[in-house]
Amino acid sequence: MKVEFIALRELHLGLKAPFETSFGVTHKRRILLVEVQADGVSGWGEITAGEEPLFSAETTETAWHVVCEFIVPLLLGRELSTASEVGALLAHIRGHPMAKAGVENALWDVEAQQKGLPLAKLLGGEREEIPCGVSLGIEESAAILLDKIDQELAAGYQRIKLKIKPGRDTNVVAEVRRRLPQIRLMVDANAAYRLEDLPVLKQLDAFYLMMIEQPLAWDDLYQHAQLQAQLQTPICLDESITNARQAAAALALHACKVINIKLGRVGGHSEARRIHDLCQQQGIPVWCGGMLESGIGRAHNVAMATLRNFVLPGDVSASQRYWHEDIIEPEVEVSPQGTIHVPLTPGLGWRPRRERIEKLTVRKELFR
Ligand code: OSB
Ligand code: MG
Predict the structure, then answer these.
(1) Which of 10, 266, 313, 354 is most exposed, with minimal Cβ within 10 Å?
(2) Could you tell me the CATH superfamily of domain 3-116+352-367?
(3) What is residue 112's predicted lDDT score, i.e. its pLDDT?
(4) What gap in Å lies between CA 88 and CA 101, rounded to an integer?
(5) What does the alpha-carbon distance between residue 320 and residue 44 come to, in Å, rounded to a whole number?
(6) Alpha helices per DSSP H over the chain
(7) Which of 35, 37, 96, 108 is CA-nearest to residue 69?
(8) The dihedral of CA 47, 50, 54, 55: what is its sign?
(9) 322 CA: nearest ligand 1 atom
(10) Structural domain boundaries of the chain?
(11) Torsions phi, psi for 310 (to 5 deg)
(12) How many alpha carbons fall within 13 Å on the CB side of residue 288?
């Protein structure tokens, strides 16, 4: 594959409803799309950086800068035999995994199309459908939240994840558990607690949650290990797992019992697969996280989640939960059984809607 052309686009998509986590409220997404052409084939990737540096250090703006100034010059005009070579070419750039992932993943799409394979197959995925859950933001009241949960369960989703923060945790979870004692339920704190909050976190053990996601600091492993030793509920790490070395350290320290894999957070498909393989060897289940992606990022998530050790329902759900109109066709749909059927066509399996993408684009940079 000779990299002939790279386009970086920023487009704005308003969420159907605001999404609140312990770190803030998101109303609209500033989405960065990477299009890479090699040997006449176009591949697409999405950069999942947030608008503000609240989930991780990256932002839409830092990713734009790093792609244009540092990543494009390394790749443009280069001959690659596989997308898996991109990681080594970018390894000396410290950090910025989301910027790297957007570009690397576009090349995975190119490679899959060139080989006539669905991306899932090229990655070594085995599932024909993937199990889906939903991530629900913090709401004004437990009553509002319960209505949303009812809706999602009726749609077929296999597990419910609730965002929590100090003061909006045990009370809300208790209420949900009272009404719905049987459902597969978990919580995500997005690093809102400290080890001193152990008494509150211990109270959560009473609700037999599947797991508690990222209770402590975004860059911590050691305190999570201390916490896990005192909690019954399995800890799942999200923010802290930025690459396969961190995953190995987390497992060696017993800092978690589950890992959430996000393509952007770990720098793309190659590193995601390394984490997946490591967890599989050590008997640690993984699931695919979400970052309020457009259809492009969502399609990549679906492909990754077909790998064998993605045994738990992820945060990959239907396009229509987020957007009035997505930028791919068809949209990502979820079956009444709470699964997404993996497409069998070459590449991503969902077609980017060029006209709509162009219409939503607020800036673009083209490199030849
Ligand atoms: O921590 O998993 C998270 C969204 C934005 C940033 C971080 C997270 C999330 C979600 C939503 O939980 C997942 C989704 O539905 O895309
Ligand atoms: Mg999370």
Answers:
(1) 354
(2) Enolase-like, N-terminal domain (3.30.390.10)
(3) 98
(4) 13
(5) 21
(6) 60-66, 72-75, 86-90, 97-115, 119-123, 142-155, 170-179, 198-203, 222-228, 244-253, 263-266, 269-281, 295-304, 354-360
(7) 96
(8) negative
(9) 15
(10) 3-116+352-367, 121-341
(11) -80, 75
(12) 29
Task: Report which ligand 1 atom has the smallest distance to the Cα of 292.
Answer: 16
* Residue pointed to by tokens 């709401």: 139
Cβ contacts of residue 284 below 8 Å, gap of 6+? Answer: 251, 256, 257, 258, 259
262: annotated active-site residue: yes
Å from CA of 117 to ligand 1 middle:
29
Site residues for ligand 1, CB cut-off 6 Å: 55, 135, 188, 190, 238, 289-292, 315
Please determine whether the domains at 3-116+352-367 and 121-341 fall in the same fold group of CATH: no
What type of residue sits at position 21?
Answer: T
Distance CA 116, CA 67 (A): 28
Q: Which mean pLDDT values do the consecutive 10-residue runs of the chain (368 residues) have?
A: 98 98 98 97 98 98 98 98 98 98 98 98 98 98 97 98 98 97 98 98 98 98 98 98 98 98 98 98 98 98 98 98 98 98 98 98 98
* Residue of 54, 135, 265, 301 to test ligand 1 pocket, by largest number of atoms within 8 Å of CB: 135
Q: Identify the CATH number of the domain defined by range 121-341.
A: 3.20.20.120
Q: Which of 100, 161, 165, 262 is catalytic?
A: 262
